[in-house]
Amino acid sequence: MKHNICIIGGGGREHAIAWKLRRSAQVGKIYALPGNAGLAGIAECIPGIKATDLDAIVDFVKAHPDIYMTVVAPDDPLSMGLVDRLEACGCRAFGPNKAAAIIEASKVFSKNLMKKYGIPTAQYETFDDYETAAAYIKDCRIPVVLKADGLALGKGVLICNTREEAEEGLKEIMLDRAFGAAGSSVVVEEFLTGFEVSVLCFCDGKTVVPMASSQDHKRALDGDKGLNTGGMGAFSPSRKYTDELAKKAYDTVIVPTVEAMNAEGRPFKGVLYFGLMIDGDDIRVLEYNARFGDPETQAVLPRMTSDLFDVFEAVIDGKLTPAMVRFSDEACVCVVAASGGYPQSYKKGLPITIGDVGDAIVFHAGTAMSADALVTSGGRVLGVTALGASLEAAREKAYKAIEKVEFEGMFYRHDICKL
Ligand code: AMP
Ligand code: GLY
């Protein structure tokens, strides 16, 4: 029996999820709303329905009773309550409901949750008025980190190395509203040092099972220079996240977070993403996401050997077990090909050519078809991804493959996985 699946979203993450589901003998047709040109090769895309158009999505799913399950991948529709709306119509959905998605949608909520339940994180204060925040910043420790409360495309975090930068940043967030309504409250927190690791976990509300670890690269340019982006590449596993650290993170952060959400009456079902900062054996939470990370998913799912459809089923039904989530020993590296100018303004509609990339996988992020030609349609255009026996081997393959890709103004980082 094959099951048809509807995937909400249209980036590299959604392409990777669909690519992995395609490998399941249990999956039939896949719909992608809105999808992209890469997804169109393995799914029926509905470019007219955006991931934030909840009414149109619910109407579409209701009008297609052949859809067995809807997978909600991006943060916006999750925090807007798409899973609640689908479930209210009797539709099966993968992802947290609105009450649980708040763990990502409000940094004030997540910081207060960690404080209340003793989950290690950076020291912080929260403010909802500019004057009090400005007074605090006048003599807080520098460097300091400012975070707009709400969702801001991963860009609402400012690391301020001087007091002047902090004062300017606070104005930007709270007065100029550079991140819109996300800036009505702000978290001001201690600057942490160490290395970062992303740990994506499946969670069925009770049982939580980590996937293979990964690391992303947020800055636009080589050597971690340039502006923050949605992510310029990722690799899995992390070299530094030892089994001992993984066990400690599981005991002190991962399980306590799931228990805290239950205690708050907000059981979490879906993928819970832990962004951790590790210094020696000190582990602290930098951020939570209520979904698969992007580009991390592009480096993690190709390593997964279990059937993703089975795991989604188990999460929804509250039947998840650790044995269901398996990964190969291979390493995986994903290098993002971005549009010139990203993360600021960039051109769209530029023709893309993809030559022979061997056995590398080219996940599409910002692509579209224009009169039969593949063109760019976003800042992050492709995630060129390769598996290998080691990180070095995977890295070499991914970089060899990305040389076969071309579009005007294309750039990519040359040091993904080199750290
Ligand atoms: P977030 O969206 O909270 O993950 O923040 C984006 C990035 O900012 C993180 O991946 C870190 O690189 C950095 N960051 C966030 N919080 C801190 C902190 N307290 N100390 C140092 N770096 C941070
Ligand atoms: N790569 C980080 C995120 O998905 O938010």
The unreliable regions are none
Describe the main β-sheet briefly. 5 strands, parallel
* Spatial order of the strands forming the largest sheet: 3-2-1-4-5
Bound molecules: adenosine monophosphate, glycine
Radius of gyration: 21 Å
- Mean pLDDT across every amino acid position: 96
The backbone outline, from C-alpha atoms, is: globular
What's the total helix number? 12
Tell me roughly what share of residues is in helical segments. 25-40%
How far apart are the first and last residues' alpha carbons, in Å? 45 Å
**Class per helix and strand makeup:** alpha+beta
What is the strand tally?
A: 24
> What is the strand content?
25-35%
Report on this model:
This protein is globular. α7 packs antiparallel against α8. It is an alpha+beta fold. A 5-stranded parallel beta sheet has the order 3-2-1-4-5. 29% of the residues lie in helices and 29% in strands. It contains 12 helices and 24 strands. The chain binds adenosine monophosphate (AMP) and glycine.
